[in-house]
Amino acid sequence: MLVDARTLSAGTVVTCDVAIIGAGAAGITIAREFIDTRTEVCVFESGGTDYSAETQMLAQGGNVGLPYFDLRAERIRALGGCTGHWGGDCRPLDPIDFATREWLHDSGWPFGLETLKPYYERATQVLRIKPYATYDVDRSQVQSQRPGLTSLRFAEDAVELRRWQQSGPLRFGKAFRDELERAANVTVYLNANLVRFGTNDEGSVIDSIELAVLQGPRFTARARLFILATGTIENARLLLGVPDGKGRTFGARNDLIGRYFQEHPAFSELAMLVPAERRPLSDFRDEVDMLSFGFTEAMQRRHELLNSNFFIEPRRIGADPAGVVSLRRLSGAIRAGRLPDDLFEHISRILADFPAVTDYTYRRIFKPTSDVVGYFEIGFAAEQAPNPDSRVRLGDEVDALGIPRVELDWQLADIDRENIVRTMNALVQEVGKAGLGRIKLLFAEDASDWREHLVASHHQMGTTRMHPDPKRGVVDENCRTHGVANLYVAGGSVFPTSGASSPTFTIVALALRLADHLKEKLA
Amino acid sequence: MLASLGTVLGLPVRAAGIVANDPLPERLAALFPHARASARALGIACRRAGACAGTPQVLAEQVCADPAERHRLTRCSVEELRAWIDARIRADFTEGRIVRVEGWMLSETEARLYALVAAG
Known about the structure:
The complex is a heterodimer of chains A (523) and B (120).
Chain A: E1 2-4, E2 13-15, E3 18-21, H1 25-33, E4 41-44, H2 53-56, E5 61-63, H3 71-74, E6 89-90, H4 113-126, H5 139-145, E7 159-166, H6 172-175, H7 177-182, E8 186-190, E9 193-199, E10 206-212, E11 218-222, E12 225-228, H8 232-241, E13 266-275, E14 290-295, H9 297-303, E15 308-316, H10 322-335, H11 343-352, H12 354-366, E16 373-382, E17 391-398, E18 404-409, H13 414-434, E19 437-441, H14 450-453, E20 454-455, E21 487-489, H15 504-522
Parallel strand pairs in A: 1-8, 2-11, 3-4, 3-12, 4-8, 5-18, 12-21
Antiparallel strand pairs in A: 6-7, 7-14, 9-10, 10-11, 13-16, 13-19, 13-20, 15-16, 17-18
Helix pairs in contact in A: 1-15, 4-15, 10-11
Chain B: H1 2-8, H2 24-29, H3 36-48, H4 56-63, H5 67-75, H6 78-95, E1 98-101, E2 104-107, H7 108-119
Antiparallel strand pairs in B: 1-2
Helix pairs in contact in B: 3-7, 4-7
């Protein structure tokens, strides 16, 4: 059932077994698991069924670290959450992503891929993609489907082909709205914002939460179990900023909340690979499979690398004029929500090379198939090293409901920067060993110009990291908040490390695992 | 590999038949009969970058330090010479013997070959 909380009377008290705060991928997934069970579930969503500018203002926040996207536009406060604008790419984490790696401080999940595999399998059904086994890449089969990329025959023990799946992208708000509306034991309250936790004296058990409607009534929800599922940035913000009846916040108890914010830093135009074998551009189009290259686990261990996925984009023969390079740089920067420092230099180059820029745009639109690939443009999106200084914290301003606004201080550590050099040097070696061509690096030898190549990936993770030790994590291996008996956290915020795969598939798998745990708890 | 390397760097390399009893530097330099100017330009860049230096004789000795092997290479067929260099270049990449020249990541052996052309 869907209820607009604006229609509730002030002081209303709703009672349920499980209260889920947030109706995005994680919240909806957990709620669906309880449909047609005896468990009464309430879901509290800040927004309505559609985007609302007024509600979206609650997401406003500041970026005080590395350049990042506008936080007000980055997260969607509406039924379905960020699945309302995600790209739909699905890939599980790799086995090494769960491992404790001696060269990567604070790495290691409390469990391995084997634990999550059954949930990934179930997540494929939620996300309406092919079964998990699809991710096992059969090289010989792939090759016939995609002659271009697979013609780059790297040593198999060094570089692996990785398959991705596209979920549509599945918009959870639209896809599951009818099901949620029909569910007798699940009630989704729209336009309901968490403003207060009700706890016992010690703050170790939550008995209720207070919710507020923008310029409307406040009401209370009582439940046995509470799940915070509002996204990586908002999960941290609410734990840091929402007080209990005594004015205490969870943030005051655990300094780790908000820390270890991770993205998938993507580095574009790092290098060009001139292939030994010339192939037509058409060999790289109409691909059946979504593939990427990544280093094998053995290779990552040998070179002490962070996991990453390479972008290898075919380009026509002949170097693009400076104006076209500037156009691409400018487009990339605008997509990343910022303008480059040398904006006017780029604009002047574009104007100076205007005929070439027009031709480039024409080619991009009509994509003639007779061209030959002259080189590949190479970049990669990497796992970000866990870093306590990369964090979400509270700012000085408050939103319309009196909750402090967020400040995002996204930081990369030395290891992330060094990883650019190590990763690209390893790629240079593999290309040379396999006789695939030669690479020209387009960044400074010490990668001191890394900022010029950096683009974020719209993937937010890590601010309520999972670890069995309360001193090292915010939630335990079952995603229960340390020190609070009945508060759970769902979403990318619990990832201890980020891997290199898009997070939503793992978020859904973890939500399914949490739902199973909650069922056991309630039994 | 050198053929493909030639393609990569715009240096078409063609078989030139067996050249017997040539001193090794000359044989190595002769591997770029149709792209000598390009190889020379690359070699100058390699020298300027400090990636390799010395006379053709020194550079040839750096490419192949073993006297017996050098002797063999001066007498083998061009195809064998290319295969030897190909293996040597791949070994360079495997062992991390790589130099950066104006952004290009070259094996030490190939950089020396270009420098050798430039020195000639």
